[in-house]
Amino acid sequence: MPERDTAPATPQLGTTGVIVVAAGSGVRLGSQLPKALVQVAGRPLVGWAVARSAACPGVCDVVVVAPPTHLDETRSAYADVSVPGVTVHLVAGGSARCDSVAAGLAALPERVQVVLVHDAARGLTPTEQFVAVDSAVRSGHPAVVPGLPVVDTVKQVDVDGVVVATPDRASLRAIQTPQGFRRDVLVRAHARASSSARSVTDDAALVERLGLRVLVVPGHPLAHKITTVQDLHLVEAMVTASAHDTAVPSGAEEAHTHVG
Prior knowledge:
Elements: E1 15-21, E2 39-40, E3 43-44, H1 45-54, E4 59-66, H2 71-77, E5 87-92, H3 97-107, E6 112-119, H4 127-138, E7 143-149, E8 156-157, E9 163-165, E10 173-175, E11 179-182, H5 183-191, H6 203-208, E12 215-218, H7 229-245
Parallel strand pairs: 1-4, 1-6, 4-5, 7-12
Antiparallel strand pairs: 2-3, 6-11, 7-10, 7-11, 8-9
């Protein structure tokens, strides 16, 4: 039987830490480098991810989880990020996503009581999305994820590819990161995860298995996950459009996009 969350509705929470999962390969991007080191709009994905997460008020620690074979390159990719009061740590990831998150969780200082788990593949996610997720956790929710409404019709199929159901898309959300958790909840979820957890694609699914509620807050188009070359071009186009939208009118200089 799923356990019930017996913690107070509005716990007193300490500082916030971010785990940036950057241990994925770049195979589907056609890159010989890990995906997090691929350049997007003039900067490696992991550099964007660290800068935008570190700019979230309340964040004091960012742990970057990188491939053991590319630790130095990963460190160099975010070396230009310097936010007062924020410490960036670097640790080696594991063979599965859950292993990498667990490594990042273990590296966070004890002062961190709210944990945001973020994919470097969504490096252009705006800082405002980190703020929204962090705020929702602090308001009393044990787990919070951002999501966008699904615009396509979705079909559930069997092993032979035959349609067995058509879910109502009004109730569906495409989930993004960062996903936010009370630290004690995330620790408990990973501790109770079985071997099947290695195939789980997000940490919220582990929390769901505990029987705890997961809140969905609005996501953002710039949090699009980069998996293919087409994704790369799409995000770069969105960044260009975003920079254009912030241009100063009346012939003045174009405003610079603020990183973070």
